[in-house]
Every structure is written in structure tokens, then in C-alpha cells.
Write a structure and sequence with these properties.
Strand content: 15-25%
CATH class: Alpha Beta
Structural class: alpha/beta
Radius of gyration: 21 Å
Strand order of the largest sheet: 3-2-1-4-5-7-6
CATH architecture: 3-Layer(aba) Sandwich
Amino acid sequence: MAPLGDNVVVSNVNLEKLLSMKGGKGEGSYANNSQAQALHARSMLHLLEESLDSVHLNSPEVPFVVVDLGCSCSNNSIYIVDVIIKHMIKRYESSDRWDQPPEFSAFFSDLPSNDFNTLFQLLPPLANYNGGSSMEECLASNGHRSYFAAGVPGSFYRRLFPARSIDVFHSAFSLHWLSQMPETVLDRRSTAYNKGRVFIHGAGESTASAYRKQFQTDLAAFLRARSIEMKRGGSMFLVCLGRTSVDPSDQGGAGLLFGTHFQDAWDDLVQEGLISSEKRDNFNIPVYAPSLQDFKEVVEADGSFTINKLEVFKGGSPLVVSRPDDATEVGRALANSCRSVSGVLVDAHIGDKLSEELFLRVERRATSHAKELLEQLQFFHIVASLSLA
């Protein structure tokens, strides 16, 4: 991909067309670098199932609809949808009101730039309903799915589905991505201009405040859209990167991922004369890890949803390595982790060649700090279970 103009990340439209986790199945792909997300999601399954226990069981004559928002392109989304549907089938089977469960439909949704091809290649084949086989037989036939699947491209900060059509919304590790960079952060004349940095971590007060405001505007838009689309009696389970600090410029784990070795690698390119300092300053990672308070304020001000559960959950490290004492493996894991989620934006901003150079430097720096990365790099997540007010 050729480098686009310096303002590539400023434009909301460009960001929406561009942003995606790294597709395909290569070393730097999201599919091969999302094991940590899988582990973190599994550690929260009890909270998800608790949220599903509150979902109203409608007549089996109407299909039960599940949506995964920000599905990306790895097995994680398919695994979670499977968990949700199997849990709901069990609830229908143990209910006295209905003889059998409904048919299930699952929508996998993400931005149009998402690698839906890779995701759909991972989908197991549909269980054969035609032969009059029961749902139990379908479930017992391992490696098959018991739901109809479809992809829905579009930004979840807008409407995506017909009114009152969805029973369960699930979204994990996506809502910390902003719909756009706050324009003041990239505007040289503004006090919020994030000079010398590529992320909010360690930034000044007005920069941090601009990021926070953007997050809250986005979350409010997200809630408004879902409040129209969700059926009465439905449930929404959300997980996003969070922070334990009151100070928004202390982004915790996200800060260590994007604010240290990644930041230093950009500075290396500037010092080596490979890019200008303006080129660096025009790039910012559109991620914001909210505090519990940031999140709660928006839900309460919006008023469409009741909070059933809202907590900070310790997710653990994003680095999954087989040999923790091998510094090279740790360095590569950090660089790949960084690249799988931000590589597409970096490629578009400085081109493939310089992007390669940047991540080589991230890897080199992370390798020399492997021990402290393993000790200090911890992610916290905001976990929210919401139902219509």
C-alpha cells in the first residue's frame, strides 16, 4: 500500500475504511496473535453466562439472534458465538414453557476493511437440519455449528440492524478503538496537539481530555444505536481495555504496548532521518482505555440501559510465549502483538518498507527489555453487562 497523505488518520472516513486487525494467516496477522485475547475471554466466560441467564426466552417460532460486534478475523469470535448459542439452547431445553429451542442466527460485524474471508474460512460447516434431526443430535455432531451465519460490514458507532431485532449483543476488545482521532490532537495550533507522541500515554492534560471526550462521544453513539436494535428482554455484554488509574494519560497496559518501545521506535526513525518529526506527530493510535468512571458516566447520561454489572477485570499479559526466558521470543511477541492491531494504520501512514523498519526496532527494543515487559505488561478490562432500561 502506498503511503497516503500525512493526514490519513485525521479523516474519520479514511480511518473507517482503513482500520482493521491485520488479516490473513501470516506471522504478524491477528489470527496468529490473538491468543491472549482468547485466554482473557475464556477467563470471563462465567460473567458472560451470568449475563445470558437474564435474557428473556421468546417463542421458538422466532429465530434467536446473536451479534458479535468487532468480530475481527480469528477463531475467538466463532468460539464466543458458539458458547452463547450453546448456553441459550440449554436454557430453552431446561425451560418448562417450550418443547424445543428456536433456530439461531449469528451476525459477525466489523468495519468493511476487516478480513471477513479469513473469518468465514474458519467457520465450521452448518449442522444438517434437513433430515429432521433434533437440535440435540446437531449439537452432538462435533465440529458443526448450530446457527446460520452472516457478515455485517459497518461501524458499530452507527445503526447496523433493524429495530428490536437482536437478542444478544457481544463485543470484546473493540470499544477502546475510537471512531476517529480527535482533530485537536493532530492540529498544531491546538493546546491538545500531541507533539512528539504517537499515543495518549504520558500526554498533556488537554490531549488526554480530547481523547477522553472522543471515547465518551463514541460510546454514547454506540449505546444509542444498540438501544434501538435490541429486543426488550435482550442483553448486551461488553469488554474493552480499561485502566485502574484516575489519570487518562496513564493508560496502563495499553500505555506499555503503544507508549514505550513503540513510541521509541518512531523516535528512532526520526533521529535516523527516515521520517520527519511532523510525519511522526501526524500519527496517533486511536485507542483509549477508559476508567470505570468514564464508562459509567456515559451509560448513566444516556439512560437507555440499566447496568447489571460493571467492573474492572484483570486480564493478564497480552504476551503469550512458550519460552519466557527467551528474550528474542518475548521481543518478537511484543512486536507482533503491536503489529497485528496497528500495522494496517502504520503501513498506510509511512508505507510498507518503513513500517517493516519500525517494527524491527520495536522488536529490538522489546527484546532488550524482555524481563520487565513480562513482569509489568498487564491488561485490565472494563466488563459491562447491560439490559434495556
